[in-house]
Design brief:
The chain is α/β, with parallel strands linked by helices. It has 15 helices and 9 strands.
Length: 385
């Protein structure tokens, strides 16, 4: 896995044609309260404030975390924290996760989550941090400064959904997206992780970790921002559409997910949402994708069948190749990832490449690129001596 902070997965998501949710009147109970930062740190240490599955890892760097502590010590008020009260009385952090983990790490004399060492979090030596506590740990603050931090107060907004039933995933998603007020907008995959927990979500994460260990072009940002997870979900969703004879998933009048023939185009984000909801308890063909990934990396050498060049991975190319591999492995057929066939793909005419670059969720283009790649990868394509 590459160390750079940029993403190396080319995507073609276009959400302009997505349909909005119907307007729903919600009954939400909410109440404001005040907690000291000391209490927040204590609750986090005891596991009373739950991190929903929005971010796999803590993303703030030392500089940003230090500026938060600096702001508190200077008496600058923080934005509200939003906490969702579940039916079982547990508390999910909806907005404020980075701030809570920063405060907890500093007061509890722990390292920041994901830090390379386990030494207590020490404030940055940056000139942006007040010289009074620049470069210090909590223990190195004066007693007055420690008291100011521990006894400082934050505004907490608790809320719980009374109606519709919060177990109705589509409605909860709608509420979640509107309630989340963080400065960094959550990606669709980060939201899916929060709304569709279960066996499939866990297994996708595990496969993403395994894939990132094998593929050097995946960056750390691809992993942390769930880009690999999203690519896996895309492949599974599109394979499901193809294997069922080009059907899509929709909600009927009773909010059940049903198979429906596709007209002309796929709203991919919606299909990925419905697929996660429908298969939250597990999806048998995930093992088939694991076999396809194993086969690819055992046979491809330096040939890049899943990218336009050697520096990145293209989601459409990867989707197409792994749909074909899953299908042919399941049927026991032979696939040839040879250099000869690789050159045939790279030498495709501009007309043949159009389904890979234009209107990629159009049904006819999906069929066309699978047929084109499939015909090439099934050819013997003997290596030249």
């Amino acid at each position: 896995m590459a160390l750079e902070s940029s993403t190396n997965i080319e995507e073609d998501f276009n959400f302009e044609d997505e349909k909005s949710f119907d307007e729903v009147v919600f009954k939400i109970r909410y109440w404001n309260t005040t907690y000291t930062f000391g209490r927040i740190a204590e609750l986090d240490k005891k596991g009373k404030l739950i991190k929903p599955d929005l971010q796999r890892s803590y993303v703030w760097k030392q500089e940003m975390a230090s500026r938060l502590i600096d702001s508190i010590l200077l008496g600058i008020p923080l934005p509200n924290f939003f906490i969702y009260r579940n039916e079982d009385e547990s508390n999910d952090i909806i907005d404020g996760l980075q701030r809570i983990k920063t405060i907890s790490s500093f007061i509890n004399k722990r390292s920041l989550p994901g830090a390379k060492n386990e030494k207590p979090f020490r404030l940055s030596n940056s000139n942006y941090i007040s010289s009074s506590w620049r470069g210090k740990t909590f223990d190195e603050l004066t007693s007055d400064e420690q008291e100011r931090l521990v006894d400082g107060e934050a505004s907490i907004v608790f809320f719980e959904q009374r109606f519709p039933n919060s177990k109705e995933i589509a409605i909860k998603r709608h509420v979640f997206e509107r309630i989340n007020t963080g400065g960094i907008k959550l990606t669709p995959q980060e939201i899916r992780n929060a709304l569709y927990p279960g066996k499939l979500n866990d297994e996708i994460k595990e496969l993403a970790k395994q894939w990132s260990d094998r593929e050097a072009r995946f960056s750390e940002l691809d992993f942390r921002k769930f880009k690999i997870d999203e690519l896996i979900l895309r492949i599974l969703t599109m394979e499901n559409i193809v294997s069922k004879g080009y059907i899509e998933l929709r909600k009927d009048e009773k909010d059940n997910i049903v198979d429906t023939p596709i007209s002309t185009s796929i709203v991919l984000k919606n299909q990925m949402d419905f697929f996660m909801e429908q298969n939250a308890r597990g999806y048998q063909k995930l093992n088939l994708l694991k076999k396809a990934i194993d086969f690819y990396y055992e046979n491809y050498d330096d040939r890049n069948f899943i990218g336009k060049n050697k520096n990145n991975i293209n989601s459409v190319y990867a989707e197409t190749v792994f749909i074909i591999l899953m299908r042919e492995i399941d049927r026991g057929n032979k696939i040839n990832l040879t250099s000869v066939n690789y050159e045939k793909i790279k030498m495709m005419s501009p007309e043949d490449k159009l389904p890979f670059t234009k209107r990629t969720t159009n049904t006819d283009n999906l069929k066309s690129r699978i047929e084109k790649f499939s015909s090439i990868l099934k050819e013997e394509g003997n290596e030249e001596n």
